[in-house]
TrEMBL record:
UniProt xrefs under InterPro entries: Alkaline_phosphatase_core_sf (IPR017850), DUF1501 (IPR010869)
Name of the protein in question: Secreted protein containing DUF1501
Pfam family, one: DUF1501
SUPFAM superfamilies, per database record: Alkaline phosphatase-like
Entries under PANTHER family matching the protein: BLL7424 PROTEIN (PTHR43737), DUF1501 DOMAIN-CONTAINING PROTEIN (PTHR43737:SF1)
Domain of life: Bacteria
Length: 453
């Protein structure tokens, strides 16, 4: 009997149709010339350049441009700064108070975070890469506001790998995409398996994660066959990183069928923990859920976790009225403070670097009735854990929040500092592409040593 030639396409088609005879196909594949394997396991943990202070990063990105003047760098509303002055200057719309331990002043929008400022390094002298949302957001993530480049999470995945092969090395939890879209977690010219895996809060955070068959052995045989066919196809195309990435994604997806649901199941948490975050049992869509999942992923070895705080649209982009910040701050304040506390009580805080950022600040002059425009010349971000000093303020702006007085930190400096805490010399983390060595910080960047322990 003449058997049809075995090809990758018709074998998978037959497999899906359920008509394939596994022993015949597997025998023929094994008899064929052994295919070229991937050069090395791409996500195997890699050595650092020097001892790392942090093992993982949890980045929180408040998309839309949070007003520094109304949150972490409050300015008086007196002396003509109430919107009635010649230049329509407007001080902070909300009252503020000082942390009782370290004295850092924070708006009443964030009472829980204010109570945690002894553990937080506040940078009030951040300078944005751009004044437009998309460019500034992409710049904050990739270091380039004008050219497509790999995101910081992808660079860290490439440079360090992951300690848990059952989960992606870089996970982004985003109910809505931020300005810049998928580019904020793209791998660009790095191998595609380093791009972020997006998780959407809800009852099924990653679609189609559950196995389609309850017969585990059959599924293993099916995936084993697909893997053999893929690698056979890859043999003559060893430079095809997209195919290699797809093979790796199949492997990770298979393992995630067990590891993923368990990691995202916050119902395993006790009532005390849920209450600390302000999360109601059964809620799978709030920012509090994102924060608890971030901790659970950190526990399970995910290297880079990003939470996109988009709130309800139009997110933090408050052009018309700064009071639009109120519900967004309320949704984020308690969960973020709880994340710090939770990591501390589990002994993970010192080895976890939390980075809270936004793409730019907002103008000291009002826009509309009580809103503010985009302002990239200065704004505030904060870091906690991971070898960063707590209870300090780095940098200063002028008395209206328009310009940096001293201590400027740009995006490249921030990236260099984050990489440093992960044990990476930002000048040595490079990738050869288009005839030159690229790096996250391009030809710029300095480590902000004043904020480090």
């Amino acid at each position: 009997m003449n058997r049809p030639r075995v090809t990758r396409r018709n074998s998978i088609r037959s497999l899906i149709g359920g008509s394939i005879l596994f022993p015949a196909i597997v025998s023929e594949l094994m008899a064929a010339e052994e295919s070229t394997s991937l050069s090395a396991e791409p996500l195997t943990p890699k050595p650092t350049h020097f001892p790392a202070k942090a093992k993982r990063i949890i980045m929180v990105f408040a998309t839309g441009g949070v007003s520094h003047i109304d949150t972490f760098d409050t300015k008086s509303s007196g002396n003509g700064r109430d919107g009635s002055g010649k230049d329509k200057l407007m001080g902070s719309v909300f009252p503020s108070n000082a942390n009782k331990q370290c004295g850092t002043v924070v708006s009443d929008l964030f009472p829980h975070l204010r109570d945690s400022m002894q553990d937080i390094c506040l940078i009030r002298s951040m300078k944005s890469a751009h004044f437009d949302h998309t460019e500034a957001a992409v710049g904050m993530h990739t270091g380039s506001a004008t050219f497509t480049r790999p995101s910081m999470g992808s660079w860290l995945s490439y440079g360090l790998g992951t300690v848990n092969q059952n989960l992606p090395s870089f996970i982004v939890i985003a109910p809505h995409l931020p300005y810049g879209g998928t580019q904020v977690y793209a791998s660009d010219f790095l191998p595609a398996y380093h791009q972020g895996t997006r998780v959407i809060p809800g009852n099924e955070p990653i679609a189609n994660l559950a196995a389609k068959t309850t017969q585990e052995r059959i599924q293993q045989m099916e995936l084993g066959l697909v893997d053999q066919l893929n690698r056979q196809y890859l043999a003559g195309r060893s430079d095809d990183s997209r195919l290699a990435a797809r093979i790796k994604s199949y492997e990770t997806a298979f393992h995630m069928q067990t590891a993923g649901p368990e990691a995202f199941d916050v119902q395993q948490e006790d009532d005390k923990t849920l209450g600390m975050y302000g999360l109601k049992r059964g809620d799978t869509k709030s920012f509090a859920w994102q924060c608890i999942v971030a901790r659970r992923l950190a526990e399970r070895g995910v290297r880079f976790i990003e939470l996109v705080d988009s709130g309800s649209r139009p997110n933090w982009d408050s052009h018309g009225n700064m009071k639009e910040h109120v519900p967004l701050a309320k949704a984020a304040d308690q969960p973020l403070a709880a994340l710090i506390r939770d990591l501390k009580q589990r002994g993970m805080f010192e080895e976890t670097l939390i980075v809270w950022a936004t793409e730019f600040g907002r103008t000291p002059t009002k826009e509309g009735k009580f809103g503010r425009g985009h302002h990239g010349d200065c704004f505030s971000i904060w870091l906690a854990g991971g070898g960063v000093k707590g209870g300090i303020v780095h940098g200063e702006t002028d008395d209206i929040g328009k310009s940096i007085v001293h201590g400027q930190v740009d995006v490249h400096d921030l990236h260099a500092t984050i990489l440093n805490q992960m044990g990476i010399d930002h000048t040595r983390l490079t990738y050869r592409h288009a005839g030159r060595d690229f790096r996250l910080t391009d030809v710029h960047g300095r480590v902000v040593k004043d904020i480090l322990l």
